[in-house]
Amino acid sequence: MALGGSGQNRRGVSGVGIEMAMMDYEEAIRYMQNAAAVGIKPGLERIAALLGRLGNPERCLRAVHVGGTNGKGSVCACLTAVLVAAGYRVGTFTSPHLHSYTERFRIDGRPVAPARLTELIWEVKPALESLRREGVVPTEFEIHTALAFLFFAREAVDIAVVEVGLGGRFDATNVIFPEVAVITNVTVDHTDYLGETVEKIAWEKAGIIKSGVPVVTGATGAALEVIARECDVKGAPLFVLGRDFYPVERENDLSGQVLAVCGWWGAYEGLRLRLPGRHQQRNAACAVAASQLLAERGWRVDAAAITKGLAAATWPGRLEVVREKPLVVLDGAHNAAGAEALKEALTDYFPGRRLVLVIGMFADKERAAVAATLCPLAGAVVVTRPPGTRAGDWRELAALARRHAPAVYEVEEIAAAVAQALGFAGPEDVVVITGSLYLIAAARAALLGLRRPDVS
């Protein structure tokens, strides 16, 4: 099937044409959701079979593979912006999305058009149906991964920035042989699938390490030891945050930061970063180190591209200010390490200001640890139910919050929870909305008046 041109170009730009295109898109999304196996099923057999039916588009891609517990998306955003600034055509695959599936598949930072994604899904459909007849049913994320690689091959990208979905070793993305691998950090998360210790989780994440491919990591302690052993076995050069490269803060406020990133190459000074939070300095440093390694492997990435790219990088839903008076901040701190990073940022940026917290988390997340970290900072806490079946007993988080906060309220519907928090806040207070990224997406849509185009 020819893949050039958007649905708008084929049908014209009339309201009827756009509506028809969106109906086609929604039908394609429903097909993809219904065709997929339910749940998370680690393993590479199904994605290998699907990609084989599609002609193995991943084999023609040069890529950077980004894994880790937290910060993967931010590193991908920074790397994408740097490579675009260097003049390359860049495909980026990340997950989850906030408002539309199209956000997962980007060219030069721009989401795929709905009509183009529709065409790709219908192109993949015969392969899915053929596999189903043989008893092979890929998961939805495996379908997304195949769509991404097919899209990037069709678009003839120069390089792809690929985010790991879960873990690494048995993640669907782990069929590529990258130029550089990044493991941002390793903390406890997704224990049902990755194991309950940092060492086990690090082993899973270290699975993206390939023979001879340089690795950048911000991991520490026992996790770093596991990654270092894997690098030794694979003959992969290892570059460690704090040892081989590091950020140096020059300026830091909610509107952004200025830093230097120093390393084996010397120093890149005067780097402006729009992403607030000290943790983003570490993410940016990992992106710079990966960019430097690409340069050393022959890619045309210089100081000007690094400077321009970091200054342009954005990542919605991470310490994002969406309203003033009261200030409303969104942050997808969905695990204990993310909560610690958010606490650090709130302490840095809002000393002495009253905080109102809106929070909702899935049942399989570290609710107690997150509540203990964030709720003592708040004058009032509104607990809400995140979207999806993983919410479980969402009110349990309210019981945990009451151990740490003077006033805790339970409001199931997200828009109503946000409205109640705004009602509690004075013009100089700060409303912080955090927890599940799916909650962040719903709250962001309500606050910004966005219409979610996808089928839920």
UniProtKB/TrEMBL annotation:
Residues forming coiled coils: none
Cofactor dependency: Mg(2+)
Assigned keywords, A-Z: ATP-binding, Folate biosynthesis, Ligase, Magnesium, Metal-binding, Nucleotide-binding
Superkingdom field: Bacteria
Protein source organism: Thermodesulfitimonas autotrophica
Keyword check for Transferase: no
Cellular component GO terms held in the UniProt record: cytoplasm
Gene Ontology biological-process entries: folic acid biosynthetic process
The Mur ligase C-terminal domain, residue ranges: 317-436
Source lineage: Bacteria, Bacillati, Bacillota, Clostridia, Thermoanaerobacterales
EC number: 6.3.2.12, 6.3.2.17
One Pfam family here: Mur_ligase_C
GO molecular function: ATP binding; dihydrofolate synthase activity; metal ion binding; tetrahydrofolylpolyglutamate synthase activity
Quaternary state and interactors: Monomer.
Catalyses which reaction(s): (6S)-5,6,7,8-tetrahydrofolyl-(gamma-L-Glu)(n) + L-glutamate + ATP = (6S)-5,6,7,8-tetrahydrofolyl-(gamma-L-Glu)(n+1) + ADP + phosphate + H(+); 7,8-dihydropteroate + L-glutamate + ATP = 7,8-dihydrofolate + ADP + phosphate + H(+)
PROSITE patterns in alphabetical order: FOLYLPOLYGLU_SYNT_2
Gene3D superfamilies: Mur ligase, C-terminal domain (3.90.190.20), Mur-like, catalytic domain (3.40.1190.10)
Protein name: Dihydrofolate synthase/folylpolyglutamate synthase
Family: Belongs to the folylpolyglutamate synthase family.
Domain (Mur ligase central) ranges: 66-290
